[in-house]
Please model this.
Amino acid sequence: MESLVPVIGRDAEREQLARFVAAGEGQALVLRGETGVGKSALLDQAAHLAARTGQVVIRAAGVEAESGLPLAGLHQLLHPLLPTVDSLDEVHRTVFDAAFGRGRGKPPSVMSLGIAVLDLLSLAASTRPLLLVLDDGQWLDASSVAVLGFAGRRLTGGSVKLLVGLRSDTPSDFDTAALPELPVQALPDEAARALLDHHHPDLAPGVRELVLDRARGNPLALLELPAHALGGAAHPLSAPADLATADCLGLRDASLPLPRRLHQVYGSRLDRLGGRVREELLRGALDGVGAARGAPPAPGVRQYRMRDAEEAVAAGLLEVDPASGDFVFRHPLIRSTVVQSATPNQRRAAHAVLARVHHDDIERRATHLAAATVDPDDEVAKALEAAADSATRRGGAVAAMTWLTRAAELSESPGERSRRLGDAAFVAGHAGLFDQARLLVRGDRAPDTADPPVSVLTSAYRALFEDGDVRHTHRQVSATIACVRARAPRESSDVLVRLVNLLLAIDQYAGDAAQWEETRALLDSLGASLPPRSHVYGDAWGDVVRHGAGVRERVEAEFSGLADLDPWDISRLGVAAYHVDTLSQYRQHLQHTVDRHSETGFVRTSMTTLHLVMLDQMAVGEWEEAERTGQRDLELTTSHGYALLAHHTRAYLGLLAALRGDTDRARELQAAVDAWARPRGVGFLTQIADAIGTTADLAAGDHEAAYLHAIGITPPGVFEPYAHQASRTLLDLVEAALHTGRTEQARAHALAAREAGLPGISPRLALLTYGALAMTATDPGEADHFHERAEQAPSAARFPFELARIRLAHGIRLRHTRGSKEARPLLLRAAEAFERLGALPWAERAQGELRASGVAARAPSAQPGELTWQERRIAGLAAIGLTNKEIGERMRLSPRTVSSHLYRVFPKLGITSRAALHDALARLEEDGDR
Model:
């Protein structure tokens, strides 16, 4: 077995690594320290120990040249295991095929790919434990770090370990991965002296002390600085040398940072090599040759092989990898020295060679072409555009923006340059990089000229999402569309489509009928110049009552081409699906978009998609999950300064609080949203604020206030044009009107829903319409008929809260008209649904009706399964005396969220105060043990 160079002065670190390697279950560990401090040597020791104890060791390393290639690092690390992928189930095989280009599916989310990676690692380690060793993790691409971070936090319980080396002086995406760390510090003085004496025993005393002083305990410096004396690693600075020699070496210059002094050491050796050998080293350095010791290139991935470089081995710059027989660099710092020492022309020539080496790899070829080309070249620009498209579909927003910007710089015509800069700015905007987007479009603007369309697009996006400006942006974008059309009346272009889609988003938030009518006339005039998707957005986002017929089918048709959809198209179509209540069909696609882009890609798109996931969770009764999704979205939107989307999220959280009967929180959020949105004319949000007020008042039993809120959205008997909440609050207005004696208004509103054709627009609107007709019918037979239609409405069970309300209302009618026996089944089903949802005021109302029908009141059950894990954890912390704030800090929740959870826990446990929690939880445990 290969012997290792002794490691001096690292007893504590070696002991901890030995425990890590010998541990009986999987875990992850990060070694973090400055350049040259000995992380690689410790990784070697751990890998050697693992191999000696029968573990499978797989090694990889981050490569700076590949840090912009999405999933390049993950592919390098997992490539020895990829043949095992075929043994996984079909779902996970599809994930890997999409991630690594073996199939045509959409790129997987971080979560789905992370789960697939865990499954692959578990399978690979089923016979022998597995150690993954990753050096230079700071150069790993963001997508790979996100997946490895996800997997690394979930290795417990298996037999897979992950060991990562990071430079502490270089920022890394691993910095936020929350993996355990082992700091690797400089050697203490005694160990530094021992290391220096072991490798350079003949140093003159004065120079020895100077090396120790300048190396500051850095092992690489202790090894390399003395070897600089006579021109090579084989000629140490010996006793005859004096301090004047040290001056020549730059060792006395304490102002130079240690890495730079080491660069000088390696640079002087490079200068003595022949020109052809330096060319070989430069190509190898730019291609990351030998970054991972002992790891061959991934199958199907070509890599440059340095040849005839024995001279560099003699100079102490290269060594021969015993596993592959290839030349590799002795240390990553040597690679960077080779690159920094080359002239621009030499680097471009090397990149040109590497572009030919990677002719079959679209993204690697683009990386080298971008660096090799100086003069405009449309063929190169097209190759970079293709790489940007590939990166977009893999979730690499920053890489796509970088390649598009470089493609613009290399464009031969001003028109192509402008188009590509516009594409880069568009990508940057959806990645939440508005500052970069503005700089890109500013570079395309000639002095003393009007703003080009791409500049308007970027500034309007920012004004809308950061400040909720729906008035000026509407005028600005409309005028720009008119200018674009005047230049090319019958032509479609990417910028025209993007402007139109932005205008539709602006008008959706404005909710202004006049603006919408103007925009609809524009859509009609453009006709086939726009893709079908834009017309779907226009019909769904504006007035679904008047234009929603057939939208469900059109949305489904567009989603059928999922493989060709960009992330922003998925979120826009998701918004259309929300307006016709079919979000559940696309939840999986939406969740993938969120997981992928909130970590590494198009974060603005993921904000909207998180809204959609939350809305579907609310609709189908997953209210706990909806609360978590909303809190996650609120953190994301506020941290990026997207005020419009932050208030949009607050509006949904307020509506959810109202549904649960948490009226104080609901009204607080309602007031915050209304105060921000109303002065700006953001009608979409003011309508949701009114809907929060309606729902909160209904929950509190204040039907008069609920009615006044509801008619603020739309008058009874009509559906206000372009008021998206008008149809969604149908049942609220009818119920509030009935409870306040306004039976004529209630009936008129129910009939208006039928006449408007709402049942044909969406499954939820069908349920609401039939429910409203049943509630307002004066003839018992008609009431039964429409209640039956509500029960049998397509997907009625997908909307449990609305269905329970309809059952409660019909149960009350039956109790008064036919007696308690007829009413009890409906009232029981309604009460159970409300309790399951956590809709406490409605549950209490249903229980009251049950008591009136002769059913004894049921004590709230305290069965273990009725408390979620999170509720049990919060209740336990509250029982030992922690405040809501302290509980929130432990569980990373807001105090308000903790309060909301406790509000639902108390009735489940049959208690009314925190003081009773301890005993109630004890009884719960006793019941669970029986």
Notes: The beta strands are 27-33, 56-61, 130-135, 160-167, 181-183, 318-320, 327-329. Confidence is low (pLDDT under 50) at residues 229-256, 859-865. Residues 28 and 162 are 5 Å apart (CA to CA). The radius of gyration is 33 Å.
